[in-house]
Amino acid sequence: MVSRKESDAPSNARLNQLATEHGISLKRPGPDNGDVAISDDTKRKILAALGVCVDSDAECLGRHATHKASSKAIPRAFLPDFLLTDRVWGISLQLYELRSERNWGIGDFQDLIDIIRFAGTLGADFIGLNPLHAPFLADPDRCSPYEPSSRQMLNPLYIAVDHVPGFKSDPQLDLRIGQLRSSDLVDYGGVAEAKMAVLRRIWQAWRSSSDRQAEDRQAFDRFVDEGGEVLRRHALFDALSSVMADQGLGAGWSSWPAEYQRPENAEVARFADEHADQIDFNIWLQWVCHRQLRQATDAAQNAGLRIGLYLDLAVGEATDGSATWSEQGNYISDATVGSPPDPFAPQGQDWHLAAYHPAEIASGNNAPFRRMVTAAMRYAGAIRIDHAAALRRLFLVPLDSTPDEGAYVDYPQNELLQILAEASSNYRCLVIGEDLGMLPEGLQEDLAEANILSYRILSYERGQKGFTPAGAYPRLSLACISTHDHQTLAGWWRGADINARSEHGIVPPEMTKAHSEQRQHEREDLKVALKEEGTNPPKHLPSPRADDDKLKDLVVSAHRFIAKTASVLAAVRLADMTAEKRPTNIPGTSGTYPNWKPKLSVALERLSGLPLLQEIADAMRDERPKH
């Protein structure tokens, strides 16, 4: 006798049809780069995450993304006229890592203005930044800028409190700020506690002041009106998050009592009425962020930076943050973003990020994707789409599953490219796509056709014949030595990345040995490439154990190589210019390394006295002069 459960289960053919109809790929890559068929269980879980019922007697319909096949030309993003003839360079950094003699233990918007002005004196045309998205203020140690609470809001921890009108210091506060400033790691909890206490006092005085500037009041009211329900719900979430965290229920909404898990619930409305003061304060924080970041964009223009700010966009948001609570219908709730198994991560990766639903991401004139990119473009001359493959597909891992049980799901690429083209034109903002890792066939060509710049990292640009010649880099690209996930050039030369993966148990010993042997070949190939480009590398290969002085010529030579590439943009990492030893982030680690916390070893006020920094800037300026 056949059970009801067995008889109701769809046939394998029907399951494959449903999966294909909803954009689920039936195969994924394996760790040896071969294809692996996804299981029927994975198909069912991903279909369920997309809202598709696979049982024959179920009465529910999945939402279909409109993957329109188009014979029209791919829409093109904005490119400034000067890039038709000029190649430019800029400095990339993590805002929080900046030290200064006046900040509160974390780089802030005033530090940003100061380094913008400094970069202008060096001949740079942009400052590249980590995502400035809103974090969990009630849980500041959830500090990864790539797992934010909301990508549409800004991070209040970057407010330069001493530049907010009405700020007054006192000896006790000065002592606490000095302690936060002197630490080698950002103390996010301490910074949040100090800043929020002082900002609340300033806000209370500001809102009750009878002589507060009418212009200020009007600007604030306009900001609130423009932010609308999205701003109000974010402020409401942060208020709830604070109360729930104080009660031991967690800052993220997935652990809250059920009556608070949906913003439209009656208990949430009652909470909003009772905590209107806190909600208004949270809105004010976003307004202060907006004003200070706008001042930074003005400073960039005044300093002669032709591109200005170059802002990074995370590929997703925290599953339990403001965005997923506020707009639950726009997100996939039962699967998270990750990546399939590969040689460096044989088990695959689960990034624990929430993804937009493919049927909602580009839906309507006020589409979630449009709001997310314009939230950054309003301040930026360039944005970078982290994990640009997401414009066509995402690897989704069902909840309570391992990454090797995930599958690729298609996204509406044509519609997303159209949104990027329209928004970038409206805001006169360049778009860069981080097109690294496993990419679907033809994506890089489509992005190039769309005027979306490719992202080229020196150490990745190597094949069987050695490193890619500088002139062979695509013109529509950004070239760089490294990113936040990498060691500096000196660290790479020393094999610090290989050692870190070994020390943290990310790769087995036999793989470490193979990587170390391979690195020696890479060093030799790099010297050949630098010599062929005439970048004045050292005559003899420095030892992998060489100190900074002995590596200086090599580091400058490598940056001159990047400057010589055909890429219209070249980014120099500030950590390379200050010879940092500690990496920003070691992918694959969590509690074993203080990711996103290390500060630079040099304060802003002393950057101009660094010989290495000046030599790198000279090389960039020589090869990419301003006309």
Describe the structure using short key phrases.
eight-stranded parallel sheet, alpha/beta, single chain, five-stranded antiparallel sheet, 19 helices, 627 residues
Protein described:
The protein is 40% helix and 12% strand. By secondary structure, it is an alpha/beta fold. Residues 1-7 have low confidence and may be disordered. The strands form 5 sheets. The protein has an 8-stranded parallel beta sheet. Strands 8-10-9-12-13 form a 5-stranded antiparallel beta sheet. The longest helix has 33 residues, at 214-246.
Radius of gyration: 25 Å
* Low-confidence sequence ranges: 1-7
Number of strands: 19
Q: pLDDT average, as an integer?
A: 94
Structural class comes to alpha/beta
Précis, in short:
This protein is α/β, with parallel strands linked by helices. The protein is built from 19 helices and 19 strands.
Blueprint (SSEs and pairs):
Layout: H1 4-8, H2 12-21, E1 27-29, E2 35-37, H3 40-49, E3 88-93, H4 109-122, E4 126-129, E5 133-134, E6 150-154, H5 171-182, H6 188-208, H7 214-246, H8 266-274, H9 276-302, E7 308-313, E8 317-318, H10 322-326, E9 335-339, E10 349-354, H11 368-377, E11 382-385, E12 393-398, E13 407-410, H12 413-427, E14 430-433, H13 443-449, E15 454-457, E16 462-463, E17 466-467, E18 477-480, H14 489-494, H15 496-503, H16 509-532, H17 548-564, E19 569-573, H18 574-577, H19 611-623
Helix pairs in contact: 2-3, 4-9, 7-9, 11-12, 15-16, 17-19
